[in-house]
Amino acid sequence: MDTQRLSVTTTDREFIHALNAQKFDGIRISHYVTDSLPADVGHFIGTYFISFGLGAASSLFASWFYDRIKRDPSHKTTINGIDVSGNPEQIIIIINNYCKQQKANLAGDSESEMI
Fold first, then answer.
1. 3, 72, 98, 108: which is deepest, by most CB within 10 A?
2. Can you say how many angstroms the Cα of residue 43 is from the centroid of all Cα atoms in its chain?
3. How far apart are CA 84 and CA 66, in angstroms?
4. Sign for the pseudo-dihedral over CA of 96, 99, 105, 111
5. Span 27-86, pLDDT tens digits
6. Is the pTM of this model over 0.85?
């Protein structure tokens, strides 16, 4: 399975528990919590690397993530360094664009293998 990986950083302590509870097929998660925190984020910041295939998993994750940020935008959250805290619509755009780029990369790799 060809996979994509996004970096999600958030001050939401419950993010990983809520994501794991979804039990999305085709999504793998690795994470770490930083020890050195910027003064403006309080006491927690987690970074999660989320891998998924190009199929339904990316759409399901994007919809779930959008709903989560829309319900509670109080946490500082970024995807691949882009702040989505106050604009959850960015989540859908970022993930869709990322998947399109990965599809293009895969197509380019396939063409180069044929030469």
1. 98
2. 22
3. 9
4. negative
5. 888 876 655 555 555 556 788 888 776 677 788 888 999 999 999 888 889 998 889 988
6. no
